[in-house]
């Protein structure tokens, strides 16, 4: 009888290491041979027979043939959970992470937190218990009141996905994964399998709340070390600069007087510069953006209902432009309002001057007072400098501010110009001249918002730059391109005496000067001139 059963068993199917009987899994050594084992396949449920020969490893086989990889994986997966449910101790893996930062000299400061693997005793074990939004393979708990439950995932073919890992970290749960995907056949035998699951198989942390809390202290320690070293570096640099100044007495006196004057000019803006430094940090910027998002959520929903018929924001309205901190509103809100009131519904061919959007932003939302005062100080200093005969073509800078401060101070004109470029990329408007766009379409082209977004234009595209342009470089380039275009026409034109910007007849320059523009008469296009 047993011989017939052995002949009918499939010889092509994958070997099944464990059989199931009345909800419990058994290895071949724990049951009778052949069909007398009374077991079924944990994966497909079909009848198994136990093969316990002398020339090969003991295993189960499907009585009527068949079976696939799923049967093997399910058997290993279920048996691993059964081992964890029966045991009361498991090896927790090593947790290691390095906290590293660079100081102002480029030197690396680091510290490491390493918690070695250890045996953990638990008192309760539950299989596939539903938690909030997920169902882990096994949940282990001990009797300590401060210990969070440990979620255990068994990997046979599928590892823990990113979505589950993110959810575990978000909820503050502890989770490990035990990897049984590359088991040696010898590790499937009786006690060897139990040792593999509980101690020997590769395992790693998906999330360890206790280790994460400890690592924050390590990070804080490294950050304090770097901050202290940076203070020392800045002090050393200041001493070095002082030594150089002392070597040149005449230059020292000149610089001291200049610095005193600079500090005098800076003194009204000390608090504003401090606010600028705070608002420019990534942490503060993120917190401010979150506050604006919560505060302006009703207004954004109202604008979406008005202009988008409750639709989601298209990419050209969902950008966070540089300098967004200047406007006292969430970027999604003021971009949506500008687009809805000044672009949406405008006829093709309508010309738009983006500089007119700046006062509209002020009236609709207002500006951040410290940042606006710093920007006004830049423009005032620029106008005074040009009036004294010094050439400074880019207006958004003040000599008594540091260079990095000038770079950080946002310009409302750059903010709206950046937004206009998003509309240009969406094929809604086309740049005609500096600060002037023409409506060219009513339906946006969203394909332009790829990883390397080209700006659609009728003019030849500019070559790719290795480094992004600063606002000053972009101003200089656009000014040179504009002058070249008007010179090619061969007609006389007017130029602002302050910023050299070409103007149409009767127009006023965006710099706000009241001085009369000068007239420029281009040279005729003769062969000598061309040479």
Describe the secondary structure blueprint for this structure.
Elements: H1 2-8, E1 19-21, E2 24-26, E3 48-51, E4 59-62, H2 69-86, E5 89-92, E6 95-102, E7 108-115, E8 118-121, E9 124-127, E10 138-141, E11 150-155, H3 162-171, E12 174-179, H4 190-200, E13 203-207, H5 209-247, H6 249-266, H7 270-279, H8 282-307, H9 331-342, E14 351-353, H10 357-364, H11 369-387, H12 403-408, H13 412-425, E15 429-433, E16 436-439, H14 471-489, E17 493-495, E18 502-503, E19 518-520, H15 527-530
Parallel strand pairs: 11-12
Antiparallel strand pairs: 1-2, 3-4, 5-8, 6-7, 9-10, 10-11, 12-13, 14-16, 15-16, 17-18, 17-19
Helix pairs in contact: 7-11, 8-9
Describe the structure in your own words:
- With 531 residues, this protein is α+β, with helices and mostly antiparallel strands.
- The chain contains 15 helices and 19 strands.
- The chain has helices at 2-8, 69-86, 162-171, 190-200, 209-247, 249-266, 270-279, 282-307, 331-342, 357-364, 369-387, 403-408, 412-425, 471-489, 527-530, and strands at residues 19-21, 24-26, 48-51, 59-62, 89-92, 95-102, 108-115, 118-121, 124-127, 138-141, 150-155, 174-179, 203-207, 351-353, 429-433, 436-439, 493-495, 502-503, 518-520.
- The strands form 7 sheets. The protein has a 5-stranded mixed beta sheet. A 3-stranded antiparallel beta sheet has the order 14-16-15, covered by helices on one side. Strands 18-17-19 form a 3-stranded antiparallel beta sheet.
- A hairpin with a 5-residue loop joins strand 6 (95-102) and strand 7 (108-115).
- It is elongated, with a radius of gyration of 36 Å.
- The N and C termini lie far apart (108 Å).
- The relative contact order is 0.06.
């Amino acid at each position: 009888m047993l011989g017939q059963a052995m002949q009918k068993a499939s010889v092509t199917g994958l070997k099944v290491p464990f059989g199931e009987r009345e909800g419990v899994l058994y290895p071949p050594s724990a049951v009778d041979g052949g069909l007398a084992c009374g077991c079924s396949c944990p994966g497909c449920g079909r009848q198994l027979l136990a093969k316990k020969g002398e020339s090969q490893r003991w295993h189960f086989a499907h009585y009527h043939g068949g079976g696939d990889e799923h049967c093997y994986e399910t058997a290993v997966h279920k048996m691993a959970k059964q081992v964890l449910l029966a045991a009361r101790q498991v090896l927790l893996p090593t947790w290691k992470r390095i906290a590293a930062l660079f100081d102002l000299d480029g030197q690396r400061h680091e510290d490491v937190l390493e918690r070695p693997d250890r045996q953990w005793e638990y008192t309760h074990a539950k299989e596939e218990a539903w938690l909030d939004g997920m169902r882990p393979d096994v949940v282990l708990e001990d009797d300590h009141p401060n210990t969070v439950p440990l979620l255990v995932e068994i990997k046979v073919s599928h590892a823990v996905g990113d979505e589950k890992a993110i959810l575990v970290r978000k909820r503050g749960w502890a989770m490990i994964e035990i990897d049984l995907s590359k088991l040696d056949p010898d590790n499937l035998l009786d006690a060897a399998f139990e040792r593999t699951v509980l101690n020997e198989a590769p395992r790693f942390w998906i999330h360890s709340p206790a280790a994460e809390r400890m690592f924050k202290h390590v990070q804080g320690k490294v950050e304090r070390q770097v901050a202290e070293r940076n203070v020392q570096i800045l002090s050393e640099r200041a001493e070095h600069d002082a030594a150089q100044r002392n070597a040149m007495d005449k230059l020292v006196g000149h610089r001291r007087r200049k610095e005193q004057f600079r500090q005098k000019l800076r003194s009204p803006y000390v608090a504003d510069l401090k606010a600028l430094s705070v608002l420019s940090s990534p942490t503060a910027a993120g917190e401010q953006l979150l506050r604006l998002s919560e505060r302006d959520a009703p207004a954004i929903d109202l604008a979406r209902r008005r202009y988008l018929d409750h639709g989601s924001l298209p990419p050209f309205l969902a950008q966070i432009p540089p300098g967004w901190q200047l406007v006292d509103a969430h970027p999604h809100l003021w971009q949506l309002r500008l687009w809805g009131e000044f672009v949406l519904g405008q006829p093709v061919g309508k010309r738009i001057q983006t500089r007119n959007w700046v006062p509209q932003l002020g009236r609709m939302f207002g500006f951040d007072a410290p940042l606006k005062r710093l920007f006004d100080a830049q423009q005032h200093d620029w106008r005074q400098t040009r009036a004294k005969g010094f050439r400074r073509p880019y207006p958004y800078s003040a000599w008594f501010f540091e260079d990095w401060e000038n770079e950080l101070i946002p310009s409302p004109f750059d903010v709206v110009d950046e937004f206009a470029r998003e509309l240009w990329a969406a094929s809604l408007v086309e740049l005609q001249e500096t600060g002037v766009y023409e409506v060219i379409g009513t339906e946006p082209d969203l394909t332009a918002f790829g990883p390397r977004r080209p700006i659609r234009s009728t003019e030849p595209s500019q070559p790719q730059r290795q480094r992004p342009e600063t606002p000053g470089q972009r101003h200089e380039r656009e000014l040179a391109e504009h002058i070249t275009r008007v010179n090619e026409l061969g007609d006389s034109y007017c130029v602002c005496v302050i910023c050299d910007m070409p103007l149409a007849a009767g127009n006023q320059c965006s710099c706000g000067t009241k001085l009369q523009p000068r007239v420029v008469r281009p040279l005729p296009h003769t062969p000598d001139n061309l040479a």
